[in-house]
Amino acid sequence: MTAVLFDFSGTLFRVESTEAWLRGALAELGLEPPEAEVARTARELEAMGAQPGGARPSRLPEDVAGVWGVRDTSAELHRAAYTALSRHVPLPEDRLHDALYERHMTPGAWLPYPDAAEVLGTLRERGVGVAVVSNIGWDLRPVFRAHGLDAWVDAYVLSYEHGVQKPDPRLFAAACEALGARPRDVVMVGDNRHADGGAAAIGCTVHFVDHLPAAERPDALRPVLELVGGTARG
Question: SUPFAM superfamilies from the xrefs (predicted)?
């Protein structure tokens, strides 16, 4: 194997809890609702799936259903889908909907999995190419820079920049091309069997990890090093 493609959310990074997300946005706006209201609102936001990278919606309202399946093909659709979900939850102020969306794009809202730095650094030492392939509606590069992982990533292939989303094979093909790697020599690592499994359509090996809180998944990325071995790019 000469290259590895990694998913972002649930694979290399885990988003903060819904309650922490809400509290962060409240603090940014200087809002201090009662504790009971904060806890209730966090539960309702989580059930609605309003936090990008968090829990999936328990139900899709009619005003969101039409855009949900293509939300990651543009920044505008991504914002529209998630702010529409949050608007189904009563919030202390209307401006909090946009504040929540902005909050999830900040580096502080994300935590790398414990073994992410070790695995990415080892791949770089072995000369193995690395790309991040993500269904997303915003630029995640600042998150990698803030957490010190950007130096080990050779390319970012983000759905909203290409207008297509996983499992579309074109996104994986673009990543392989960016790394100068043949798909048969590439491993795709992700947490979503449908979306990330699409890499198999162009001949990539696919390896799955579980989307768990960071503290509960200390070393799930390390088997990737065994899959890749010591083969470097030619």
Answer: HAD-like (SSF56784)
Average pLDDT, stretch 167-179? 98
Instruction: Let me know whether 151 and 125 are in one domain.
Output: yes
Q: 9 forms bridges with which residues in the sheet?
A: 13
233 has pLDDT over 90: no
Q: Is the pLDDT of residue 231 over 70?
A: no
38 and 97 co-located in one domain: yes
Confirm whether 211 is domain-assigned. yes
Question: Which tokens hold the place of 68?
Answer: 């949900």
Q: Which of 23, 18, 16, 26 is nearest to 92 (CA)?
A: 26
Write the DSSP assignment of the chain as a string of letters: --EEEE-SBTTTEEEPPHHHHHHHHHHHHT----HHHHHHHHHHHHHHT-STTSPPPSS--HHHHHHHTTGGG-HHHHHHHHHHHHTTS--SSTTHHHHHHHHHTSGGGEEE-TTHHHHHHHHHHTT-EEEEEE--SS--HHHHHHTT-GGG--EEEEHHHHT--TT-HHHHHHHHHHHT--GGGEEEEES-TTTGGGGGGGT-EEEE-----GGG-SSTTTHHHHHHTTPPP-
Q: Which residue has the tokens 């995640």?
A: 140
Residue 192 has pLDDT above 80, yes or no: yes
Of 108, 140, 166, the domain-final residue:
108
Task: Determine, yes or no, domain membership for 233.
Answer: no
Residues 172 and 224 in one domain: yes
Q: How many domains does the chain have?
A: 2
pTM of the complete model: 0.95
Q: Which tops the pLDDT comparison, 233 or 143?
A: 143
